[in-house]
Amino acid sequence: MKKISPKKSVFRSKNVKHSFTGTQLTNYAGLSPMMKYINKIKFGKKINELFPTVMHNSTKFSNAQILVSVVLASFSGINRLMRIAMFTRDALVMALLNLQQGLNKDVISVRLKELGQAGAIKLQEYLFGLTTDWLTKSQLNSITVDADSTVKTVYGNQEGAAKGFNSKKKGAKSYHPLLAFVSELKIAVNTWFRTGSAYTSNGICEFIKQTKAILPPTIKRVFFRADSGFFSGALFDLLESYKWKYLVKVKLKNLKQLLESQNWQIQKNNPDIAICEFDYKGKGWKKTRKLRAIRTVAKWVEVEFMGKKQLAPVYQYACYCSNLNYDALKLHEIYKQRSTSETWIEQVKSQLLAGATLTDNFHANDILWQLQVLAYNLSVMMRYKVKKLWQQEHATFRYWFINLPAKLVRGSRYLNMKIYENYYHEDKWNDFAESLL
Known about the structure:
It is a single chain. The protein is 39% helix and 23% strand. The longest helix has 34 residues, at 105-138. It has helices spanning 31-40, 43-50, 63-75, 81-87, 91-96, 105-138, 204-214, 233-241, 255-260, 328-336, 339-351, 362-382, 387-390, 394-401, 426-435; strands spanning 2-3, 16-19, 54-55, 142-149, 152-153, 162-163, 173-175, 178-182, 187-192, 221-226, 245-249, 265-267, 270-280, 289-305, 308-322, 406-410, 415-419. A nine-stranded mixed sheet has the order 9-8-4-10-11-15-14-13-12, sandwiched between helices.
């Protein structure tokens, strides 16, 4: 047995040029410029260094080829090991990954399992460094970190899957990953793959400590925003020790009764809105904090009072804990901007298919999750220089620029990829490809 050194890796992406003539032979022409970007950040080379391939007589694929194929498949809307294996038989994919034949689903599964927990940790640490580099190059000195969790239902007996909160499939087993996004770049700065029985805020303080370590020293100010699942005195203590600003929605069992007893200030310009603020110290909290709430009229209903029918308001409440010096009305508006992070989570899950490819091994599934979240980040950062494309969802981008028919013509030194000469987005495609150089 021997390990392949980086210089002798069987993963060497071939040079592919393109022009706009020809007929169909590959269905993923848009992967060619993307692979140039992946090579530019030396992703394949680094993966080969982290996970050198132990060679046997029967070994045909390197670990780097397998892991990069998962990323490319995620770009292209391909999930499940069988479909990923079929995807690697595409002519362009084989050329980009320097494959002599398509991968086998069992090979993919076995290799991921062999990497195990140590491999998942190694990959995570490398991805942290990649994120730090992106944040440094962005030249941002102030960022917003939106934290959230998501439930991914599973069907089977996958290791680590468990019953927990699941609004769509009550009682079903699931995983419950935790994510944090940098809103200004729309990238996932940190993610933990967790069992389905984990409560939303489980390990949140350790997660934030890790997230802070990822941020480069150029980031001077951080604003943290999260929903009611992260309402925790220990978290607030930690954020205040970092001098981070924060805004978290309040979650209490008796919240409605508590708010109903407050003195409300009705807004002059809109009598259907009222605000209040009050001091609160939760169980185990080190100090008292100010909570600010907003009350709005959701609807009017007809009630009977003293034998007469009249209209009465039905109120809707929202309450926040924050160290920002704003009233409840302003905090409510800032919190609503958090909804964009929920859109990004849906892109990660529904468009990059994170969590949709599973094995029966928890750590292999963790690696798959990380690779698919990476695919989302790569999609965002590759489009960053072309703002019109950066604003698009990945599904639209994939439809326009990735899933394209093309013909490959082999030359002496490179492959020439010929795309349909009347392709509607030719100019945009060329602008995007040039932006990656």
